[in-house]
Amino acid sequence: MANGLDFAYAAGLIDGEGCIGVYNQTCPTTKTKTRYSLSVRIQMSDWEAVLWMENTFGGCYRSHPQLGYGTRIMYEWVLSSKMAGEFLKQILPYLKNKKRQAELAILFQDKRKKGGRKNNAVREAEQILADAIKREKRRLI
Fold first, then answer.
1. Interior CA angle at 25 toward 64 and 30, to 5°?
2. Which structural domains are found in the chain, ordered by start?
3. DSSP state for residue 95 in the 8-state scheme
4. Strand, coil or helix: what is 137?
5. DSSP per residue over 50-71, as a string?
6. How far apart (Å, rounded) are the C-alpha atoms in residues 87 and 106?
7. 52-68 pLDDT, tens digit each
8. How far apart are CA 67 and CA 38, in angstroms?
Protein backbone atom coordinates (compact mmCIF):
# COMPACT_ATOMS: atom_id res chain seq x y z
CA MET A 1 0.00 0.00 0.00
CA ALA A 2 1.46 3.33 -1.08
CA ASN A 3 1.79 6.19 1.41
CA GLY A 4 2.34 9.95 1.11
CA LEU A 5 6.08 9.56 0.72
CA ASP A 6 5.55 7.10 -2.15
CA PHE A 7 3.16 9.52 -3.87
CA ALA A 8 5.67 12.37 -3.46
CA TYR A 9 8.51 10.27 -4.91
CA ALA A 10 6.31 9.15 -7.83
CA ALA A 11 5.35 12.78 -8.49
CA GLY A 12 9.04 13.71 -8.62
CA LEU A 13 9.68 10.95 -11.15
CA ILE A 14 6.73 12.11 -13.27
CA ASP A 15 7.84 15.76 -13.07
CA GLY A 16 11.41 14.90 -14.03
CA GLU A 17 11.28 11.87 -16.31
CA GLY A 18 7.59 11.37 -17.02
CA CYS A 19 5.03 12.07 -19.66
CA ILE A 20 1.28 12.60 -19.29
CA GLY A 21 -0.73 12.46 -22.48
CA VAL A 22 -3.96 11.61 -24.23
CA TYR A 23 -3.30 9.77 -27.45
CA ASN A 24 -5.65 9.00 -30.29
CA GLN A 25 -5.70 5.52 -31.71
CA THR A 26 -7.45 4.21 -34.78
CA CYS A 27 -9.61 1.16 -34.21
CA PRO A 28 -7.70 -1.83 -35.68
CA THR A 29 -10.83 -3.53 -37.01
CA THR A 30 -12.70 -0.65 -38.66
CA LYS A 31 -9.69 1.63 -39.43
CA THR A 32 -12.08 4.59 -39.24
CA LYS A 33 -13.11 5.10 -35.62
CA THR A 34 -10.75 6.98 -33.36
CA ARG A 35 -10.56 6.53 -29.62
CA TYR A 36 -8.59 8.49 -27.07
CA SER A 37 -6.67 6.97 -24.20
CA LEU A 38 -4.93 8.51 -21.21
CA SER A 39 -1.37 7.35 -20.62
CA VAL A 40 1.19 8.15 -17.93
CA ARG A 41 4.75 6.97 -18.53
CA ILE A 42 8.28 7.23 -17.26
CA GLN A 43 11.31 6.39 -19.37
CA MET A 44 14.78 6.38 -17.86
CA SER A 45 18.00 4.40 -17.60
CA ASP A 46 17.48 3.55 -13.90
CA TRP A 47 15.67 0.21 -13.91
CA GLU A 48 15.17 0.16 -10.14
CA ALA A 49 12.98 3.27 -10.09
CA VAL A 50 10.91 2.03 -13.01
CA LEU A 51 10.46 -1.41 -11.47
CA TRP A 52 9.50 0.24 -8.17
CA MET A 53 6.75 2.17 -9.98
CA GLU A 54 5.33 -1.06 -11.41
CA ASN A 55 5.48 -2.86 -8.06
CA THR A 56 3.92 0.07 -6.18
CA PHE A 57 1.29 1.37 -8.63
CA GLY A 58 0.79 -1.40 -11.20
CA GLY A 59 1.05 -0.82 -14.90
CA CYS A 60 3.54 -2.24 -17.36
CA TYR A 61 7.34 -2.34 -17.18
CA ARG A 62 9.57 -2.98 -20.19
CA SER A 63 13.05 -2.33 -21.47
CA HIS A 64 14.41 -1.45 -24.89
CA PRO A 65 17.65 -0.12 -26.37
CA GLN A 66 17.67 3.63 -26.85
CA LEU A 67 18.64 4.52 -30.40
CA GLY A 68 21.38 7.11 -30.64
CA TYR A 69 22.83 6.34 -27.21
CA GLY A 70 25.02 3.34 -28.07
CA THR A 71 24.32 0.34 -25.90
CA ARG A 72 22.35 2.12 -23.18
CA ILE A 73 19.15 0.34 -22.26
CA MET A 74 16.14 2.45 -21.39
CA TYR A 75 13.41 1.27 -19.04
CA GLU A 76 9.81 2.34 -19.32
CA TRP A 77 6.80 2.20 -17.02
CA VAL A 78 3.33 2.81 -18.46
CA LEU A 79 -0.05 3.19 -16.79
CA SER A 80 -3.16 3.73 -18.91
CA SER A 81 -6.80 4.78 -18.83
CA LYS A 82 -8.70 4.50 -15.54
CA MET A 83 -5.66 3.38 -13.52
CA ALA A 84 -3.70 6.37 -14.88
CA GLY A 85 -6.46 8.77 -13.84
CA GLU A 86 -6.59 7.35 -10.31
CA PHE A 87 -2.80 7.47 -10.03
CA LEU A 88 -2.73 11.13 -11.11
CA LYS A 89 -5.36 12.01 -8.50
CA GLN A 90 -3.12 10.52 -5.81
CA ILE A 91 0.06 12.34 -6.86
CA LEU A 92 -1.58 15.64 -7.90
CA PRO A 93 -0.82 17.49 -4.61
CA TYR A 94 2.88 16.69 -5.03
CA LEU A 95 3.30 17.64 -8.71
CA LYS A 96 5.00 20.91 -9.65
CA ASN A 97 5.92 21.09 -13.36
CA LYS A 98 3.21 18.84 -14.74
CA LYS A 99 0.37 19.74 -12.39
CA ARG A 100 -1.76 21.43 -15.08
CA GLN A 101 -1.27 18.50 -17.46
CA ALA A 102 -2.35 16.13 -14.70
CA GLU A 103 -5.44 18.24 -13.94
CA LEU A 104 -6.47 18.16 -17.60
CA ALA A 105 -5.77 14.41 -17.82
CA ILE A 106 -7.90 13.74 -14.73
CA LEU A 107 -10.71 15.84 -16.21
CA PHE A 108 -10.41 13.89 -19.46
CA GLN A 109 -10.59 10.52 -17.71
CA ASP A 110 -13.47 11.55 -15.43
CA LYS A 111 -15.55 12.83 -18.38
CA ARG A 112 -15.13 9.73 -20.51
CA LYS A 113 -18.35 7.93 -21.23
CA LYS A 114 -18.26 4.43 -19.83
CA GLY A 115 -18.86 1.85 -22.56
CA GLY A 116 -21.47 1.98 -25.26
CA ARG A 117 -21.47 4.05 -28.40
CA LYS A 118 -20.11 7.54 -28.24
CA ASN A 119 -21.91 10.39 -29.89
CA ASN A 120 -20.16 13.21 -31.71
CA ALA A 121 -20.32 15.55 -28.70
CA VAL A 122 -18.40 13.08 -26.53
CA ARG A 123 -15.78 12.55 -29.23
CA GLU A 124 -15.45 16.30 -29.67
CA ALA A 125 -14.99 16.80 -25.91
CA GLU A 126 -12.29 14.12 -25.88
CA GLN A 127 -10.52 15.86 -28.76
CA ILE A 128 -10.69 19.24 -27.01
CA LEU A 129 -9.14 17.86 -23.82
CA ALA A 130 -6.48 15.93 -25.75
CA ASP A 131 -5.54 19.13 -27.61
CA ALA A 132 -5.46 21.12 -24.34
CA ILE A 133 -2.95 18.67 -22.86
CA LYS A 134 -0.79 18.92 -26.00
CA ARG A 135 -0.83 22.72 -25.80
CA GLU A 136 0.11 22.60 -22.13
CA LYS A 137 3.06 20.33 -22.93
CA ARG A 138 4.29 22.72 -25.63
CA ARG A 139 3.99 25.66 -23.24
CA LEU A 140 6.43 24.00 -20.84
CA ILE A 141 9.12 23.50 -23.48
1. 125
2. 4-140 (3.10.28.10)
3. -
4. helix
5. HHHHHHHH--EEEEEEPTTSTT
6. 9
7. 999 999 999 998 876 65
8. 26
Strand partners, 35: 25
Is 32:116 a contact under the CB 8 Å cutoff?
no
Rounded to an integer, the average pLDDT of 64-86 is 83
Give the Cα separation of 134 and 137 in Å (integer): 5
Burial class of residue 57, CB neighbours in 10 A (0-12, 13-18, 19+): buried
pLDDT above 80: residue 45? yes
| Entry field: residues in the chain | 141
- 124 vs 37: which has the higher pLDDT: 37
Strands (E), the chain: 18-26, 34-44, 60-65, 73-80
Closest by Cα among 92, 113, 110 to 101: 92
